[in-house]
What we know:
Blueprint: E1 6-12, E2 16-23, E3 27-28, E4 33-36, H1 39-51, E5 59-64, H2 68-79, E6 83-87, H3 89-93, H4 104-117, H5 130-161, H6 167-197, H7 199-208, H8 216-228, H9 236-243, E7 248-252, E8 256-261, H10 268-284, H11 286-297, H12 302-323
Parallel strand pairs: 1-5, 5-6
Antiparallel strand pairs: 1-2, 2-3, 2-4, 7-8
Amino acid sequence: xxxxxxxxxxxxxxxxxxxxxxxxxxxxxxxxxxxxxxxxxxxxxxxxxxxxxxxxxxxxxxxxxxxxxxxxxxxxxxxxxxxxxxxxxxxxxxxxxxxxxxxxxxxxxxxxxxxxxxxxxxxxxxxxxxxxxxxxxxxxxxxxxxxxxxxxxxxxxxxxxxxxxxxxxxxxxxxxxxxxxxxxxxxxxxxxxxxxxxxxxxxxxxxxxxxxxxxxxxxxxxxxxxxxxxxxxxxxxxxxxxxxxxxxxxxxxxxxxxxxxxxxxxxxxxxxxxxxxxxxxxxxxxxxxxxxxxxxxxxxxxxxxxxxxxxxxxxxxxxxxxxxxxxxxxxxxxxxxxxx
Length: 340
């Protein structure tokens, strides 16, 4: 892809955003502009860029991932044929030494410079299909409801252990817990309904659910990662690293040495679901149970072995998706030479 002529950096806030433009060889051209973070501000920004000769075909727009603050603007820019990159804030921050002033103008200029320096590493953002976006929202909502239920259950347990009982407080917690449980069931029904509306997505979910320990929630979360980041996740090793279960070594010379461990970056919800799946197959699947007991007998920590099982599940999921075939229990590969 031809390198762009203009590099646009946008620093987003709740009500406004700052915009800076740079060119090659690197320099910021003109003054940083500020616009309202609403449709009128987007139209004013487009007019401002047009007057300065910044066309969509010759520009790349870079902004930091700020959740819903920049979502509407990203949709608008993509609709206007701009190439948009949404980068992690920490990644942008680490590209610069922490010196000098920090304000919206400086931040937007640094984001523009970041897109210039690391253009070959940018991944251009595209909006998800409506159904996939809805599934993502429902999965996040379910996670929030589960956390609230856990908080109320913990509070109720503490109240029941108190010497002086407070029946009204206990009853209110009980009511909230029961209502949250009903809401969670409604959310799960809605997730199933949305999945069924997309035949291709639904078929992949069904294939993943043939794997021991993989249920609807884990399958849906993993598929969303694969669909949303096809350039990032191309094999099981990259998927494991993206989720945060890939062990990394930590050593330097002869004085610094730590056992290999995962960094726990990436989506926490998927890691938790994978851990629960690993616990399940450890107990109920003969193959994984035998593997777990063998490694424990060798002196391996149980958490390490569970992490290994999680990596094995990720590898199986990627194989199922790649081959478009369901998991076959007790499958054994045969060397081609033995078939002659």
